[in-house]
Amino acid sequence: MRASRPVELVCPAGSLPALRAAVDEGADAVYLGFRDATNARNFPGLNFDRDEAAEGIAYARERGSRVFVALNTFPQPGGWRRWTETLALAADLGVDAVIAADAGLLRHAARHHPDLILHLSVQGSATNRAALTLYHEQFGIRRAVLPRVLSLTQVERLIDNVPVELEVFGFGSLCVMVEGRCVLSSFITGRSPNSCGVCSPAEAVRWEETPAGRQVRLGGVLTDCYRPGEPAGYPTLCKGRFRVNDITYYAIEEPTSLNVLDILPALVRAGVAAVKVEGRQRSPAYVREVTRVLRAALDACQADPDGYRPDPEWTGALDRLSEGQTHTLGALHRPWQ
Amino acid sequence: MKLALGPIPYFWPAERVQSFYREAAEWPVDIVYLGETVCAKRRALGLSDWLALGAELAGAGKEVVLSTLVLLEAESELSTLRRICGNGRFMVEANDMAAVQFLAHEVPFVAGAQLNCYNHETLAWLAELGARRWLPPVELPAASLEAILARCPPALETEVQVFGRLPLAYSARCFTARHHNLPKDRCGFRCRDYPDGLTLFSQEGQPLFVLNGIQIQSAAPCNLLGAVDELAALEVDVLRITPQDRGTAEAVAAARAALAGDGEAAGRLAEAVPGGWCNGYWYGGAGMDWRCG
Fold it and tell me: Quick one: which of A59, A265, A330, B30 has the most CB atoms within 10 Å?
C-alpha cells in the first residue's frame, strides 16, 4: 500500500531525554518500550515506566509527534500476563500504535483492544506479500516494519501488492539476519532478542588486555581480538572475526551501519510510509544528531526528489556516529547480499 | 513416540539425495520431511522430483511431509510455494507465514519451528488455522514447552528436534558465497562443495557455527536422546532427526534404541559420531551448553 501522507520519520526513544531530542529535531513519530523484556531493547538503564511514558506522550503530542510502543518480543507462557498487561497499559495511555511481533499477542490485541492500531514489528519476519496479507487479514495490522533483507526492487514491488503500509529502516546498526529468525545470541549466552529482548547482552561481555591484543569474549567465546590502536566495536556475534577454512575475517558482517541517504528519493517514490531510525540504546545526543540529519534529508527529498543530493555534511555527521565509521545500504543494494 | 527425518538442510547433488532416501526408506523412521528449506536457488530437484521421491517413501510405509522455504522474498518463490501447498497429496510444513496464508482453512499443515510459536495463544491460533502438528522454536526451554502443552489444543501433535545441527539464523546474505568472495547472484553453487556446511571457528579454534548458504547452524549437533523420558512425560509425539552428511543412520538407530528404553544409546552414538554436542536450550541455558543427562 502506498502511503497517502508524507513519509514519516520514526525515531528511537530509549529515555525521556532521547524522546525530547527526537521530537525537538522534528521526528514525526517516536517509538519507546517499557522497562522489561516486553521489548527488543531490554537494556539496563533504558526505557520507560508508566509515568515517564505518559510524560513523553504528552511532550510529543504537544509538538505534533506521534508515539508508538514496542511490545515486540515473544512471550512464553510464564510471561503471558506481563505482556498482556503491558499491552493494556499502552492502550490506556492512548498510544498511536503498538508494534508487536508475536501472533498470539497480536490476536489478543485485536480481540481485547479493537481500537488499538497495530504495526507488525520487524521481529515478525514478514518479508513477502503472502505473510503480510496474513497478518493484515488475521489481526488487522495497518503497517509492517520490513526486515533488512529485501533489495530496493523487492521493496518497491511489495509496496504495490500488500494491504498495509510499509516502514523501512533508514539508519542505525545493521542487523544482517532476518529479524526474528536469529538466535545466535542465545546459543552463546542464553538470551536472545526474541525471548529476552537483548542481543549479545552486556553482562556476557568480557574485555581482556593480552599480549596478543585486546580480546573480547561473549559468554566465554572469543569473538574478536584487536591490535593496539584498532577501533573496537560492540561484540555482537555477527560482527566478530572468525576462522573459516583457516582464513580469519568478518565471516558474517563487518562492523558498519545502515544508511539509506543515497537512495532516499527511490524509497520516497516507491511509497514507503515511514523511514525508521534504529537505536533506542543510543544516547540523547546521538538521537538528536541523527534526527536532525534525517529530517533535513527527508524534507529536501520530498520537496524536490529529482534535485535531491545527499549533503556531504549529513553523510559526514552520520558516519561519525556509525559503527566502524562506515555505512552500507545493506540488502537494499543487491551486491551486498 | 514417532521418529521423523527432517528435511536435508544442505545442497546435495540429486543422486546423493536419491541414494540418501533409498537408504532412509529402510530406516526405522515413521515420517520423512522432503524439500528445500534454505535457498530458492538450489534446484537440483524440482517439485515433481520431490513428489516422486515422496511416492516411493510413502510406498515404503513412511508418512511424507513437504517442507518449505524459510525466507521468501520474490514472487517466483511464492509461486513455487503455492504449488507445493496445493500438491494435493502430502501434508506441508509451513516455515514462513506465507505458507500459512496459502494453507490456512484449506488443508491441515505442520507449523514449523521458524513460525516462532512461543506460547499457547499462538499455538491455539495456528490450530484454528489448521495446524495438525507443530514444532517449538529451537531456543524454547522444556519448562516453557511443558506450560504450552498443558494448554495444547487436542489432536495437535508436538514434534521436537532431538538430533542434528540447530538452525540458528537466516539472512539475505549467502555466507558460503561470501567466504568465496562471490556475490549471491553469481554464487556458482559453492555450497555444493560443503555437504555438511562450512564450519566457523573462533580465533582460538573453538567450533561455533556452520555456514550453510543463507543459513547459520550450530557447529555442534543438538542431542536430546538423553532426555527421551522427559519428552515422553511431556507427551511429545514426534522426535526429529536432522540429516547430516555422515552419522544420520547411526542417529536414527540410537534414537530408536533410546525410545525402546536403551539408556546407553546416547553414549554409543558418541562413539559413532565424534565431536561435541549441545542440549543447553532444553534446560533453559545457552544453546551451546552440553549437560549430561
Answer: A330
Please tell me whether residues A163 and A16 are part of one structural domain.
Answer: yes
| A179 located within any domain | no
Per-residue cell: A224: 574478536
Domain count, chain A: 2
Q: Which of A249, A270, A291 is the last residue of a domain?
A: A249
**Which residues, 6 or more positions from B221, have their beta carbon under 8 angstroms from its beta carbon?**
B163, B164, B165, B166, B242, B244, B273, B275, B277, B278
DSSP-derived secondary structure for B46-104 = -HHHHHHHHHHHHHTT-EEEEE--S---SHHHHHHHHHHHT-SSSEEEE-SHHHHHHHT
Q: Which residues in chain A are contacts of B200 at CB distance < 8 A?
A: 242-244, 251
**Beta strand extents in chain B (DSSP E only):** 2-5, 31-34, 63-67, 91-94, 109-111, 131-134, 157-171, 198-201, 207-212, 215-223, 238-241
The complex's ipTM works out to 0.97
Does B182 map to a domain?
A: no
Report CA torsion sign: A104, A107, A112, A113. Answer: positive
Residues of chain A with pLDDT under 70: none
Nearest to A191 by CA among B148, B280, B113, B115: B280
Same domain, A267 and A133: yes
Look up the domain containing A235 and give its range. Answer: 184-249
pLDDT digits (tens, 9 = 90+) for B15-67: 999 999 999 999 999 999 999 999 999 999 999 999 999 999 999 999 999 99
In angstroms, rounded to a whole number, what is the distance separating the alpha carbons of residues B119 and B135?
A: 12
Instruction: List the single residue in A with minimal CA-CA distance to B114.
Output: A181
Residues A174/A322, Cβ–Cβ less than 8 Å:
no
Q: Can you give the C-alpha Rg of chain A in angstroms? A: 19
pLDDT at A31: 98
**CB proximity A188 to B under 8 Å:** yes
Q: Given an 8 Å threshold on Cβ–Cβ distance, is B97 in contact with A335?
A: no
Question: Would an 8 Å CB–CB cutoff place A98 in contact with chain B?
Answer: no
Q: What is the pLDDT of residue A57?
A: 98
A36 and A14 co-located in one domain: yes
- Tally C-beta pairs within 8 A across A and B: 217
Per the CB < 8 Å rule, is A253 touching B122?
no
Question: What pLDDT digit, counting tens, does each position of A99-138 carry?
Answer: 999 999 999 999 999 999 999 999 999 999 999 999 999 9
- If one counts the domains in chain B, the total is 1
Instruction: State which residues form the domain around B12.
Output: 2-165+221-283
